[in-house]
Amino acid sequence: MPKIVDREKKRAEIAQKAIEALAKRGFQATTIQDIADAAGLGKGTIYHYFKTKEEILWAVSEQMFRETERSLGAALLKINEPMDKLVALIEEALHITDDLEHIFIIYSELWLMTVRGEPTGDFTNVLRRLQNDMTNLVASMIREGKKQGLWPGDTDADALAGYLASSFDGVFAHYMIDKENFDIKRVTNEFIKFLIKQSAPKND
After folding, report:
1. What is the DSSP annotation of 51-93?
2. What is the pTM of this model?
């Protein structure tokens, strides 16, 4: 009787090895054969699960964001205050993992390719969708906070959310450039303290 293979589990295993190879060798330089070698599989087996290395990258990116969304969502169910929700989101967004570092390296290369006008498939649309999802999540928390008086009524929730979501990328970039000297946990904690202070009621 042929062995039953969990397709989604196998895709995840291949994707994990692929991301490591893509980050190490570079997106352009890495071939499907390289990914097959890293995964310990035949090239034909890889094509059975993924048509291109771009598809692997998009699948992993989507999976990472959705996992973050699920874990954050579970945590947020236990939190009532909008500021506490925003703090939890910031801490989760700036939580460093090996996978996140690999994705950042690959995306940096793809971004440069885009700037140079080189073909990158659906990279821009995928990245825009993920960024919009994060921005919308932050904006919803800011709107909730406005209702409770944490921020002035004329605060532009979408604009502020766009800034905060974009700042996550900037903080992470600084960390990747100088891991030894850039204490991302300290920076994150200080930013959270500043944000909480800014939202505190002002004495007239």
Report:
1. SSHHHHHHHHHHHHHHHHHHHHHHHHTT--SHHHHHHHHHHHH
2. 0.75
